[in-house]
Write a structure and sequence with these properties.
Number of helices: 3
Strand content: 25-35%
Low-confidence stretches: none
Strand order of the largest sheet: 2-3-1-4
Helix content: 25-40%
Shape: globular
Distance between the termini: 11 Å
Number of strands: 4
């Protein structure tokens, strides 16, 4: 059951929108190796605004993700690709519908 999640807002630097999109697409392969990441979505909110929404069964799963490979890669690329640091919000999931 999904209980907690993350919503991360990313604002691309001018001219870096395509690189941010490609970075996010590449993140899918990495999170597929995270058993506690129940759901993971890379989204585009506007021309230069992107986001990540991911969900976990518990706080331990969320923390494992935050200290995992995608988070490390994002923080390493942030100065090059993003206009400001990622805005990471920890959220509680009130209800969810997932396959399975």
């Amino acid at each position: 059951m999904v209980k907690v999640a993350l919503f991360v807002r990313l604002e691309a630097k001018p001219g870096k929108e395509g690189e941010v999109e490609n970075f996010l697409r590449g993140g899918l392969q990495i999170v597929q190796g995270e058993p506690a990441t129940i759901a993971w979505f890379a989204i585009r909110l506007g021309p230069s605004t992107f986001g990540i929404f991911d969900a976990f069964p518990d706080e331990a799963g969320r923390q494992a993700h935050l200290s995992g490979k995608v988070a490390a890669a994002l923080m390493a690329k942030a100065p090059e690709l993003l206009a400001q640091p990622p805005a990471i919000e920890k959220v509680d999931v009130l209800a969810a519908k997932l396959p399975g």
